[in-house]
Amino acid sequence: MNKPLEKARASDLLVVRAVHRVLRTLVRMSSVRRAMLVLARVFPLASLRKELIQLRVFPELVEASLQSVGSPGQTMTMMVGSPWDQVAARLWWDSVSGYEAPMPQLLTALAAAADRALVVGANTGFYCLLFALGSKVARVDAVEPWPPAVERLRGNVALNDVDRQVVVWPVAAGPTDGTTSLYVPPPLEEDWPFEMSASVSPVHRRRHGEQIEVETKTLESIRAASPQPIRVVLVDAEGYDVSVLQGAGASLLRDRPFVFTEVTSEEVSTLDALRAAWGFVSVEIRPTELVITARVVRPSRTLGRVPDSEGDTEYWISGLVPPERVGELEAAAVACSLTVTKDEGLDPHDMAGW
User: Fold this and answer.
1) Tens digit of pLDDT per residue, the chain (354 long)?
2) Do 108 and 130 touch, CB atoms closer than 8 A?
3) Are 171 and 198 in contact (CB under 8 A)?
4) Burial letters for 124-149: b for 16+ Cβ neighbours within 10 Å, e otherwise?
5) Which end of the chain has less neighbouring CB within 10 Å, N or C?
6) Angle of helix 86-93 relative to helix 46-54, nearest 10 degrees?
7) Are 112 and 136 in contact (CB under 8 A)?
């Protein structure tokens, strides 16, 4: 063991921490913050902006180009606010396509021909704006139960002038209509990133900061609000996704939508049972590839572990696709420079209509 080298590294770490403490103190001065933001505009480097976010320095509004998702000349604007929206902050230092890749590109392409899309767990509206601005979807149903997120969602919708396209549902989606409890994790700090993991599931996180009563609607009830068929469904309900999908009824299933959902390792078997009942095939989403399989399986690589969860709960995005729409999926994948692989274990019955 090289003790002098260890001491040098420890010394370097102390210096870095000291510099960060000094910078954190300086950025409390409004003049310093303004100067840093000017610097970021003059030198729009992702690495610089990422460092500024670490110091919690960012503009009040973030404007991001949608060119990377196939909509040149179109931009999306989101409020950052305090507590700051980590999605909006990510857009500032990275790009629209850099968030949860390849979902923004893929969803924009798939929804391009859709009249209606549904987003459950809309939060502050990133995917809703993507559908409305990037895909030009005529109607986007945005479901979000947490009141602070609903307020900011509506603000972002108004900011982008898509009020006539985006219909906000200030409710939770679930297997039945009624009411339920929403569990909100405690904030780590006063200006910590905007809460994105409030859940109807009481076991999704170990700790709860507050518990509120919210209205619930099934996907079938939401579908019935308009005669337009829903062609794309995105669900991110923080460990409650399968229960949300259990609220899909005959009308929604007749629409034959693409369904994308954030699934946890505890939900695989129940999600696959639902897939089988619908007669859909499964799609594993990878950064550069889509793998079409007969059943929902745990991918070789997940998005990570659910923070503050019981045990080793992991999560990832899974797709459920009607067999007759696999061709559309493949065409969208090609447009997004994604490769498509079909699992050799697919039953011929599952491939009918491909």
Assistant:
1) 555 555 555 555 565 555 556 556 655 656 666 776 666 666 676 777 777 777 777 788 999 999 989 888 899 999 998 888 889 988 888 889 888 999 999 999 999 999 999 999 999 999 999 999 999 999 999 999 999 999 999 999 999 999 999 999 999 999 999 999 999 988 767 777 888 889 998 887 777 789 999 999 999 999 999 999 999 999 999 989 999 999 999 999 999 999 999 988 888 999 999 999 999 999 999 999 999 999 998 887 777 777 776 667 888 899 999 999 999 999 999 999 999 998 765 554 444 433
2) yes
3) no
4) bbbbbbbbbbbbbbebbbbbbbbeeb
5) N
6) 150
7) yes
Burial class (CB in 10 A: 0-12, 13-18, 19+), 293: buried
Pair of tokens at residue 338: 């994604």
